[in-house]
Amino acid sequence: MRLMITCPGCTSRHPVGALERGREVTCGCGETMSLPLGQEGSAGLEIAVFVRDEPVCPLCHEALTEIAEVVRKCHVRTVTRVHPIDSSQFLRLSFQDDIPVVFVEGVYRFRGHVDPVLLLRLLLAGAKKDSP
């Protein structure tokens, strides 16, 4: 099953891939949607994690712990940005049933659970691609 985003204007559903790498999408109702991905000035590979703050989400806590452990082991410069879905109606509508949702370098990779082996491979491949 593909991850979908929900337009806050008309509640129509769109594939999340349309918003990868910081792109914007305009729905048929005229609502423009974007995710906070690929921010300028990043000092390493970007990992964006969308979580729920209230109520406390054990899956989100587990995912953040897993990500921190993988980053520590792989010695690749990364920037992990945590985005609470409750900060935006668009994020809440889109991800409320799928949290945590994880993007690596602007590409959707995980929801509900982080596979540490796959995350390690993604980070190492990204570091290799960025090295001269």
Describe the 3D structure.
With 132 residues, the protein is of the alpha+beta class. The protein has a domain at 39-130: Glutaredoxin (3-Layer(aba) Sandwich). It contains 3 helices and 8 strands, in the order βββββαβαββα. It has helices at 58-74, 89-95, 116-130, and strands at residues 4-6, 13-15, 24-26, 32-34, 45-51, 78-84, 101-104, 107-111. The strands form 3 sheets. A 4-stranded mixed sheet has the order 6-5-7-8. It has a two-stranded antiparallel ribbon with strand order 1-2. α1 (58-74) crosses α3. The longest helix is centred in the middle third of the chain and has 17 residues, at 58-74. The radius of gyration is 15 Å and the shape is globular. The N and C termini lie far apart (37 Å).
